[in-house]
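_Full entry_
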Amino acid sequence: MTQTSPNLHLLVTAGPTYEPIDAVRFIGNRSSGRLGSALADEATRRGWTVTLLLGPNAIAPSDPRVRLVRFQSTADLQARLAEFLPHCDVLVMAAAVADYRPAPEEIDPLGKRRRSKEGMTLRLEATPDLLSGCSSQARPDQLLVGFALEPQAQLMDSARAKLARKSIDLIVANPLETMDSSTIRAWLIGNADRGISLEVSTGEAIPKDCFAAWLLDHLTPLAHERAASERARVQP
């Protein structure tokens, strides 16, 4: 059954980050943004207010009511999250954020590195952990959802470790084959330490638009419960 949510604001991130090497080249990944855009469309159809932070060369949502904000790099996305996180009830961090980027001294923002017989060596630095940063800044009434894209053999262990490490409410565990695919097989795992004891699976692989509906069916009551609980806590 579709659950409408006219009073909830969803913030979704989707697509890849592009970390510049020079004015032409970048370090990126194959994320299509398809799942995040499907989630934005489905939530809008259900009456949510939706803001989608969408990376470069990613599939855009079809519903014109989705507020679409573009980003390029991890630094861009970090700035957009700082701007929009305070206004949402639920954050779904579906973007494929780079773990590393070229160190500042390696970047030629106005030029183009020329080919050399000696090859090219780049020093990379770690990017900031955006989801952990959001967790440290989030209000008690907000619901934070992350994704764990891992090889099937270590999927569940990695997802549970990431859930605890980033101190978020829920995590979607999905195998590497999901990237750039039109379907997804996933597990939704709750953080019992944050009051959510939940572990459910889609079963077989399903189209990403169907997954968006499946995920929202689970997130909607949890978001309402979290908001109601916090209102009750602060009321005299």
